[in-house]
Specification:
The structure is a single chain. With 115 residues, the chain is mainly β. The chain contains no helices and eleven strands. It has strands spanning 2-7, 10-13, 18-26, 31-39, 46-51, 57-59, 67-72, 77-82, 91-99, 102-105, 109-114. Strands 2, 4, 5, 6, 9, 10 and 11 form a seven-stranded mixed β-sheet that branches. The chain has a four-stranded antiparallel β-sheet with strand order 1-3-8-7, with no helix packed on it. Strand 9 and strand 10 (102-105) form a beta hairpin. It is globular. It starts with a strand and ends with a strand. The model has no long low-confidence stretch (mean pLDDT 96).
Length: 115
């Protein structure tokens, strides 16, 4: 099993930046893919960015060019650098990790972007 704890959320003005972190513990050596999702009020949870164990990345069209996903396997930590934030980016951001064929979720961290 894997435990995931997100941090780094908060309130920021439009155009600002935040960096989210997701610390993993447990069977971290077995983690392959990791991802960030987000869920705004009244909306379904959506994929924001994905990174493979080899470092290949994919992004939602809405964040391409503004967000960067990365991982530090020596620290068992996943990151999401968010630049040029917009009010529409306001959501709870969740970390997700895959161990073999099982996916695990963190508890989420709130990001609020004011206009």
């Amino acid at each position: 099993q894997v435990q995931l704890v997100e941090s780094g959320g908060g309130l920021v003005q439009a155009g600002g930046s935040l960096r989210l972190s997701c610390a993993a513990s447990g069977s971290t050596a077995s983690i392959n893919r990791m991802a960030w999702y987000r869920q705004a009020p009244g909306n379904q949870r959506e994929l924001v960015a994905l990174i493979s164990d080899g470092g290949d990345t994919n992004y939602a069209d809405s964040v391409t060019g503004r967000f960067t996903i990365s991982r530090d396997n020596t620290k068992n930590t996943l990151y999401l650098q968010m630049n040029s934030l917009k009010p529409v980016d306001t959501a709870v951001y969740y970390c997700r990790a895959r161990v073999h064929f099982n996916w695990y979720w963190g508890q989420g961290t709130q990001v609020t972007v004011s206009s």
